[in-house]
Specification:
9 helices, two-stranded antiparallel ribbon, Rossmann fold, alpha/beta, 199 residues
Length: 199
Amino acid sequence: MCACCGRPFDNEMAQEAGKKQICGACLAQKRPLFALKRFAFIYDDDSKNLILGFKFADKTSYAAVLGDMLWRAGRDIWDDEPDLIIPVPIHRQRLLERRYNQSALLARHLAKKTNIDADYFSLQRVRYTIPQVQLSGAARRNNLKQAFAVIKPQNIKGRKIVLIDDVETTGSTLAECAKVLKKAGAKKVYALTLARPEY
C-alpha cells in the first residue's frame, strides 16, 4: 500500500513497490494535509451494509468490533505516538435527528484501546450542510467551506491529532477538518477511517 495514504496497490505493483512506496496522488501533493491516512476496509456492498447499519439503524453495538478494526488499521499511526483522538463532528441538528455520532463512538473505543485522550468538543461543525452523499466533486468541497471550526485552540496547538470518520469518499470532509486543525496549530494530523472506495 501507499506509505502515506494507505491506498492499496494491485498485486503487480506491490511486488515491484515493496512496503515504502508512495502513490502518484500523494507524490503530487506539495504540502500534504495528513502525516498518514489509513482505513480498515474497502467500501463495497458488504461493508456498506455494515456501516449503514451502524450509522443510521441504531446498531451502536457495532462500535466495539469496528473500533478494533480501526485500531489494527492504524498501527503505524499509533507507533507515531499521537496526542489526541478527535472524531469528525456532526452538526447539533443532525445529532438530534440521529441521536449519536458514529465517529464519536469509534473514537471512544479507540481512546480506551490506546490510552490516548479523545476530544469531542474542540472541533465543531458550526454550519449545517447537505449530506455529502447527495453531492459530487466540487459541490462537496463547496458544501463544507467554513462548516468546521476549532473552538478550543489551546487543546490543539502543538499536538498530533488522529481524525476519526466512518467513510472517506472524496476526502473533502477530512480535508476541511485537517485545515482548521492545522490553522489552530496542530503539529500533525492523521486520518483513520473505516472504509474508502476502491480506486
